């Protein structure tokens, strides 16, 4: 009884229509939060007492970095569910995550580099946090490359899922790297057990962009998932209904 | 206004960071929508072909 929702989530037509209905509920709040959060970060938040106006890179860097970890975790979890329960939709979720994760990771690295240049005096340092984040980028790219190299979708699902699940070890390594090693990168200001070390005028815009990026990821994932599910279910009869439905709406 | 754009001398770093992230967001929206449009067009094509056969 309690598991019916789980079984329904395994049904591609149900997921396809559910994803279509859910997308605007993610996309519009995401747009609103990102625009307001970036305005808050650029205009409302006071300059930093050490870094002046330069610290405002925070509002795009930190959400991108959070996202890189969150997308990877989602991808690995979906891949794991796909492996254990042989759930096609879960594999489709994992496959839809990779390109999004790669771009957010790229953004985290590039904005970090642009922040490092004036503050640390270098664009790049082989520092643990930076190095493992770069490894994460290669994990996303490797996952995509592996999928692209295997023609049979079900085999690509299984092989890439193993890679995704094994690679999840890098997520806690990145998160705790600034504590485990003597890193150039500063330690966490928000994601820690005691209260955040930031005044509310600085913190609130960051939380808004952080939540905005999360919802944006949700919206993009839902759109990509529909594309993925549709192209996988080649012979299924429900495709006919989807096509008819789309023709009726157009 | 000029003062805001100058970002206390960090204009180069701050604005290029924002530009890169915004471009990445826009590209991701374009790519995701294009992937869906393509999958839908492909599905339409398959259904029409099966009907014709």
Give the gist of this structure.
The complex is a heterodimer of chains A (250) and B (53). Chain A has 9 helices and no strands.
Mean pLDDT of chain A: 91
Helix/strand-derived category of chain A reads mainly alpha
Low-confidence stretches of chain B: none
Q: Please outline the major beta sheet of chain A.
A: none
Order of helices and strands of chain A: HHHHHHHHH
Q: What is the radius of gyration of chain B computed over CA atoms, rounded to a whole number of angstroms?
A: 22 Å
Number of strands of chain A: 0
Q: What is the end-to-end distance of chain B?
A: 66 Å
Query: In which range does the helix fraction of chain B lie?
Result: over 70%
The shape of chain B, in one word, is rod-shaped
Mean pLDDT of chain B: 91
Q: Kindly estimate the percentage of residues of chain B that lie in beta strands according to DSSP.
A: under 5%
Shape of chain A: globular
Please explain how this structure is put together:
The complex is a heterodimer of chains A (250) and B (53). Chain A is globular and about 60 Å long. In chain A, helix 3 crosses helix 6, helix 4 packs antiparallel against helix 8 and helix 5 packs antiparallel against helix 7. Chain A is built from nine helices and no strands. The mean pLDDT of chain A is 91. With 250 residues, chain A is mainly α. Chain B has a domain of 31 residues. Chains A and B meet through helix 2, helix 3, helix 4, helix 8 and helix 9 of A and helix 2 of B.
Layout of secondary structure:
The complex is a heterodimer of chains A (250) and B (53).
Chain A: H1 4-9, H2 12-44, H3 58-85, H4 88-120, H5 128-149, H6 153-167, H7 170-180, H8 200-232, H9 238-249
Chain B: H1 2-6, H2 11-52
Annotation keywords:
heterodimer, A: 250 residues, mainly alpha, 9 helices, 77% helix, B: 53 residues, 89% helix, rod-shaped
């Amino acid at each position: 009884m309690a598991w019916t929702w789980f079984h329904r989530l395994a049904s591609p037509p149900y997921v396809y229509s559910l994803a279509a209905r859910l997308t605007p509920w993610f996309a519009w709040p995401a747009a609103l939060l990102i625009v307001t959060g970036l305005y808050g970060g650029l205009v409302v938040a006071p300059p930093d007492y050490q870094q002046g106006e330069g610290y405002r890179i925070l509002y795009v860097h930190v959400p991108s970095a959070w996202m890189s970890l969150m997308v990877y975790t989602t991808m690995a979890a979906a891949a794991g569910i796909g492996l254990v329960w042989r759930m096609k939709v879960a594999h489709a979720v994992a496959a839809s995550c990779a390109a999004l994760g790669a771009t957010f990771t790229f953004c985290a690295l590039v904005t970090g580099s642009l922040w490092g240049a004036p503050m640390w005096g270098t664009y790049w340092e082989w520092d643990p946090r930076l190095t493992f984040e770069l490894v994460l980028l290669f994990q996303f790219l490797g996952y995509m490359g592996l999928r692209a190299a295997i023609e049979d979708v079900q085999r690509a699902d299984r092989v890439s899922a193993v890679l995704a699940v094994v690679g999840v070890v890098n997520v806690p390594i990145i998160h705790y790297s600034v504590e485990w090693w003597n890193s150039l990168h500063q330690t966490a200001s928000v994601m820690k057990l005691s209260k955040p070390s930031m005044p509310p005028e600085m913190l609130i815009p960051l939380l808004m962009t952080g939540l905005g990026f999360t919802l944006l990821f949700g919206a993009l994932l839902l759109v990509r998932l529909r594309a993925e599910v549709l192209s996988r279910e080649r012979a299924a009869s429900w495709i006919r209904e989807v096509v008819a439905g789309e023709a009726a709406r157009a | 206004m000029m003062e805001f754009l100058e970002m206390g001398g960090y204009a180069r770093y701050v604005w290029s960071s924002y530009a890169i992230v915004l471009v990445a967001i826009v590209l991701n929206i374009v790519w995701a929508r294009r992937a869906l449009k393509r999958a839908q067009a492909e599905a339409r094509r398959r259904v029409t072909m099966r009907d014709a056969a």
